[in-house]
Amino acid sequence: MPTVLYTVKSTISKQNEAAYNKWYNEDHIPQFLAYPGVVSAHRFRSILGEDTYQYIALYEFQDERTLREMLDSAQMKDLKADFDRRFPESKRSSAAYEQVWP
After folding, report:
1. b or e along 71-99 (b: 16 or more beta carbons within 10 Å of the residue's beta carbon)?
2. At 66, phi and psi to the nearest 5?
3. H-helix or E-strand containing 10?
4. 3-state class of 9 per DSSP?
5. CA distance 53 to 68
6. Angle between helix 64-71 and 74-86 (nearest 10)
7. Does the pLDDT of residue 1 top 90, yes or no?
8. pLDDT in tens, 14-61
9. Cis amide leading into 102 (omega within 30)
10. What is the CATH number of domain 4-98?
11. Residue 9, CB half-sphere, CA atoms under 13 Å: how many?
12. Which residues contact 53 (CB under 8 A, 6 or more apart)?
């Protein structure tokens, strides 16, 4: 079964960047990883390129079914609501990808 990646790109204001990174690393990702079938999570900060987003989070799921269940779950609704409440100025975009090689 192919691995599935769920990506979330985001921006944050300079004045909230430290709080955002602390919250994302210490609260948000552990809550996300608690969902059964989420294999791993990684975060990156943009250093080069033309993307308008500063950060990207990569979440690996065991399969597409698990991803779709998570996206429809109450847990995901709560995670999004918490994000929006804490950082209303942030912009984000998400997408999912299925592994095609190897």
Report:
1. eeeeeeeebeeebeeebeebebeeeeeee
2. -65, -45
3. strand 4-10
4. strand
5. 24
6. 60
7. no
8. 999 999 999 999 999 999 999 999 999 999 999 999 999 999 999 999
9. yes
10. 3.30.70.100
11. 9
12. 9, 10, 11, 46, 91, 92, 93
Q: Where are the domains of the chain?
A: 4-98
How is residue 13 written in tokens?
A: 């204001």
What angle is formed at CA 73 by the lines to CA 97 and CA 52, rounded to 5 degrees? Answer: 45
Helix (H, G, I), strand (E, B) or coil at 97: strand
Helix, strand, coil share (%) of the chain residues, nearest 5: 40, 30, 30
